[in-house]
From TrEMBL, chain A:
Keywords: Nucleus, Transcription, Transcription regulation
A biological process term (GO) from this entry: regulation of DNA-templated transcription
Species per Swiss-Prot/TrEMBL record: Musa troglodytarum
The name this protein goes by in its record: IBH1-like N-terminal domain-containing protein
Entry similarity comment: Belongs to the bHLH protein family.
UniProt-annotated location(s): Nucleus
UniProtKB/TrEMBL annotation, chain B:
Keywords from the named record: DNA-binding, Nucleus, Transcription, Transcription regulation
Subcellular location: Nucleus
Biased composition regions of type Basic and acidic residues, renumbered to the chain: 117-145, 153-181
Any one GO CC term of the record: nucleus
Biased composition (Low complexity): 101-111
CDD domains from the UniProt entry: bHLH_AtBPE_like (cd18919)
Organism expressing this protein natively: Musa troglodytarum (fe'i banana)
Location of the BHLH domain: 188-238
Primary location: nucleus
Name of the protein in question: Helix-loop-helix DNA-binding domain
Pfam families: HLH
Record-linked PANTHER family: BHLH TRANSCRIPTION FACTOR, STEROL REGULATORY ELEMENT-BINDING PROTEIN
Length: 195, 376
């Protein structure tokens, strides 16, 4: 995946739309509520801008598990929302036949009897793979190589998200600063004049 | 005669079958169908070529409407083949019309299956010959169309068997193209399990290489476990950064309502974007104008030295904030440029000596949320 201009463009637009949809600036919300709304619209913007990938579907599925998010999601996604939710559920695990799993485990166990050296390394890798599956949205239903694929994609998108939010932040803060300075100048002038 | 099969596949196959059925075994059922028999029939009925062409002419363009074609073709058929058709009954045709689709489908699928199995058999027989190798190579290339292709691993072991049987002694280890060629290397096991394992491992190692380039500080680490560790840490840190930034954005209150229509030039999302069209939410421009003007004037008044900076000074405040300016503001060249912009912005503001609303002054490119939490 390449972080293209179109992607960033769409991402920013989606995020601003999301801000407006959840009306973070106009409504009087608590701080925590506002923060959650911002994070939600940022995540949804990232998923929408990226398109349809396993992790985006997992992300949206995960977000829609909470009731409060659903109306927002429906608003933003429109008719895509229903179609996105149907095929993939984030906690869906790969269905495995018990007999086959048992047979393969037996084969592995016999091989391991002869080859003890790789056990430690394998368990370490296994543990970390499990951890990564938890981190990447929709990760539990992926196997090793596709998990790495999705991680790659997800990392790129996360980076773009962080950059975008940082630049938005600086824009807003700078403008706020500007407005503050404008307000202060006439005050100073007034105090000057009065003296 | 074979060449005729292609354009007249639906009808001619069935008609050939019917002709054969009537010709050879009048009592045979319509649904019993062998493609080879049909071929044989067609080949034997050479003088019928002209008749077929007439048929095709009769049917015209409506090949999809099987029913109409059947009847139409039947007429032509009767004209061209008086001998055969006299034995055909109309109700047979009527029944055949409904059976036609299913039989054609069945025939096409069965024929395709037969052709496929033939190919497999042929390739297995000619494993030693160059033809077989080319075939299987072609198949492999068709299957493995890139790094991320979901190749059917079950098929591969079978093909690998025939390849490895002759190539097990080869010293050729380097791949010939970018595709992942799997040949049993010298002195390695050649059973399908280990070959499939090796393919899987190679794929995973390739992905790990990409990730290594992506995650900073991963170039020194070589083991899989270590790299996974780094990747996990990086993903966690990015997620924490997002949390933190959303918190900061929430703290900037009130936020500017940017008039999106004018920002993005009122045009739709460009088609290169992967997302489908998103419903534009109606925006009330009343309260927005004030803040929008502020934003515009900000752009104008902001005195920044370099042109790379986040907010361009040369935008006319009265004019709409065009999407190009904002797009270039968010500077598309890459995240590193955004970071330098960030630093420049902070630098200017420090020079201004304003009472900063920014409590975090040590911000570099990668925010370290741990440090920031402490400062909080």
């Amino acid at each position: 995946m390449q972080v293209t201009e179109a992607f960033k463009h769409a991402f920013l637009k989606q995020m601003l739309l999301g801000f407006q949809a959840s009306a973070v600036s106009t409504k009087s919300m608590g701080f925590q509520e506002r923060k959650n709304a911002i994070k939600l619209s940022a995540d949804v913007a990232m998923a929408v801008a990226r398109g349809s990938r396993k992790w985006t579907r997992g992300l949206i599925a995960g977000l829609s598990e909470e009731r409060q998010n659903r109306s927002f999601l429906r608003l933003i996604l429109g008719e895509q929302y229903e179609s996105l939710l149907k095929p993939c559920h984030s906690s869906w695990k790969i269905p495995r036949c018990k007999k086959i799993v048992r047979r393969s485990l037996r084969v592995c166990w016999r091989k391991q009897k002869k080859n003890q050296s790789g056990v430690l390394a394998r368990t370490l890798v296994e543990k970390r793979t499990q951890e990564l599956k938890r981190l990447v949205p929709g990760g539990e239903s992926m196997d090793g190589s596709s998990l790495l694929d999705e991680t790659l994609d997800y990392v790129l998108s996360l980076r773009a998200q962080v950059d975008l939010m940082q630049s938005l932040l600086t824009t807003f803060e700078a403008s706020k600063l500007r407005s503050h300075s404008k307000r202060r100048l006439p005050e100073r002038k007034a105090s000057y004049v009065s003296k | 005669m074979q060449c005729l099969r292609a354009p007249l596949s639906d009808l001619s196959a069935l008609e050939g079958q019917r002709a054969c059925a009537e010709w050879q075994q009048p009592g045979q059922e319509q649904s019993d169908y062998h493609p080879y028999d049909a071929d044989y029939c067609m080949q034997s009925l050479c003088p019928v070529e002209t008749a077929f062409r007439a048929l095709h002419g009769c049917n015209g363009g409506g090949e999809n409407e099987n029913h109409g074609n059947v009847h139409g073709s039947n007429d032509c058929f009767s004209n061209a083949w008086p001998d055969i058709v006299s034995s055909m009954h109309c109700p047979v045709v009527g029944a055949a019309a409904s059976v036609e689709e299913t039989s054609v489908n069945a025939s096409s699928s069965s024929s395709s299956r037969k052709r496929k199995s033939e190919n497999n058999r042929r390739s297995k027989e000619n494993s030693g010959g160059s033809d077989g190798k080319d075939d299987s190579n072609c198949k492999r290339i068709k299957e493995e169309t890139g790094v991320g292709a979901a190749t059917p691993e079950a098929k591969r072991p079978n093909k690998r068997k025939e390849e490895s049987a002759d190539a097990s002694k080869e010293n050729d280890k380097a791949p010939k193209s970018d595709y992942i060629h799997v040949r049993a290397r010298r002195g390695q096991a050649t059973d399908s399990h280990s070959l499939a394992e090796r393919v899987r491992r190679e794929r995973i190692s390739q992905r790990m290489k990409y990730l290594q380039d992506l995650v900073p500080g991963c170039s020194k680490i070589t083991g899989k476990a270590g790299m996974l560790d780094e990747i996990i840490n990086y993903v966690q840190s990015l997620q924490r950064q997002v949390e933190f930034l959303s918190m900061k954005l929430a703290a900037v209150n009130p936020m500017m309502d940017i008039n999106i229509d004018s920002l993005f030039g009122g045009r739709e999302i460009n088609p290169t974007c992967k997302s489908a069209s998103i419903p534009m939410i109606g925006m009330s421009s009343g309260a927005i104008d004030q803040s929008y003007l502020q934003f515009g004037s900000l752009q104008h008044d902001m005195f920044m030295g370099s042109s790379d900076l986040l907010l361009r000074p040369n935008v006319n405040p009265a004019a709409a904030v065009s999407d190009t300016s904002l797009g270039s503001c968010l500077n598309v060249n890459g995240s590193s440029v955004w970071n330098t912009n960030l630093q420049n912005v902070y630098g200017v503001e420090f020079q201004l000596g304003r009472g900063t609303a920014l409590p975090f002054q040590s911000l570099q490119g990668n925010l370290l949320p741990n440090n920031l939490k402490m400062e909080m």
